[in-house]
Backbone:
């Protein structure tokens, strides 16, 4: 039975690592988007949209 438990633990550890990676990616996207929203709020009539500019430049990815 030890072998099955060991394999299950390894699977769970890999899944946990994947989840932690996704959380880190989401946190980075959240921070980038929050900064862009803030730039929109305080932009004072910029001629271009900071969010569209960042997306076109590849500075952020959404998903």
Residues:
């Amino acid at each position: 039975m030890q072998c099955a438990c060991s394999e299950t633990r390894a699977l769970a550890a890999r899944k946990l690592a994947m989840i932690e990676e996704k959380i880190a990616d989401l946190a980075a996207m959240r921070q980038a988007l929050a900064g862009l929203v803030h730039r929109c709020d305080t932009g004072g009539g910029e001629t271009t949209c900071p969010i569209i500019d960042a997306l076109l430049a590849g500075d952020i990815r959404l998903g």
